[in-house]
Amino acid sequence: MQGGLSSRELPYANFGAQTILEKVYHVNWKTIDKIKHTLEPFAYYNYVPNVNQNDFPIFDQIDRINARSLLAFGVTSRIYAHSAAHLAMPEGDFAQSDIAETEEDEGLSGETPQPSGPEPPGMARELAEFQILQAYDTDHAVAKGGSQWSDLEGSALILATNWISMGSQLGYDPRDTRITYSSIYFTMQPPWKLYSPPSLYMGRSLSGSFVQLSYNYIAPGPTALQPGVNSSFYQFVTLRAYYDLIDRVGLFFAPSYDIANSKMLSTEYGIRIKSPCNCWAVDAGITKSINPSETAVQFMVTLGGIGSVGQNPFGRSPFQHATSVMPGL
Question: Is 87 contained in some domain?
Answer without folding.
Answer: yes
